[in-house]
Amino acid sequence: MTLLPEQFIQKFRHHLEKSLKTNEIRLSDLQMDRMAGHAEELLTWNQKMNLTAIKEPLEVAEKHFFDSIAVASFLDNETSLADIGSGGGFPGIPLKIMKPELNLFLIDASQKKINFLKHVIRRLKLENIEAVHARVETLNSDPSFFERFDAVISRAFTDLGRFVDLSLPLLHPGGRIYAMKGKHLDMEITPDLERRFQCKTHQYRLPFEKADRYVIRLSAKQGY
């Protein structure tokens, strides 16, 4: 049965609050309202374009929002962040809601998705955030984006080695790469990556599905 928007949001709020409580994460009223606003727009726009195959309130709360929020505590003191392949705004928009001080760029190759992200940014009244229509393969050769960010992040954008190579031109010297991955992360950490980068992994668990998730932070070693 398809839920009406108000029913969806009520259930979404309940499941998100419950999932965050299991990890002792608290949202302010404004943060929860913004998360719910993002979820409502995702539900509404998804009826006319393909933003997500995840449509049930519990799954949206857990697999999109909790999954993104859980990463916030693992970020360092970066002030500028690019979310590569942002899609429906994950993890970028929840991270911006959790860390308003971030200067955030949401990058996606789909103009329709960028239109959605710009709409969400306006609705939530977020500042210092921009949605950019571009393929990272071409963006990383754009002089205006060369060494622009303290960090880049992606969620299941591509394999780790390729993501690293695409990200490096966008990073300040000493910038960090964050990649959100599932249970097969260890298969993507090659000897070459371990030689070139300090790799630190943070593990967390989706509280309802009981599935393990990982975010790996790569920092270039001296000489690389």
From N to C, what is the helix and strand string? HHHEHEHEHEHEHEE
Q: Structural class of the secondary structure composition?
A: alpha/beta
CATH architecture: 3-Layer(aba) Sandwich
Distance between the termini: 54 Å
User: How big is the Rg?
Assistant: 17 Å
What's the rounded overall pLDDT mean? 94
pLDDT < 50 stretches? none
Number of strands: 7
Structure description:
With 224 residues, this protein is an alpha/beta fold. It has a single domain, classed as Rossmann fold. It is built from 8 helices and 7 strands. Helix 1 packs across helix 3, helix 2 packs antiparallel against helix 4 and helix 2 packs antiparallel against helix 5. It is globular, with a radius of gyration of 17 Å.
Please provide a brief summary of the model.
This protein is an alpha/beta fold. It contains eight helices and seven strands. Strands 3-2-1-4-5-7-6 form a seven-stranded mixed beta sheet, sandwiched between helices.
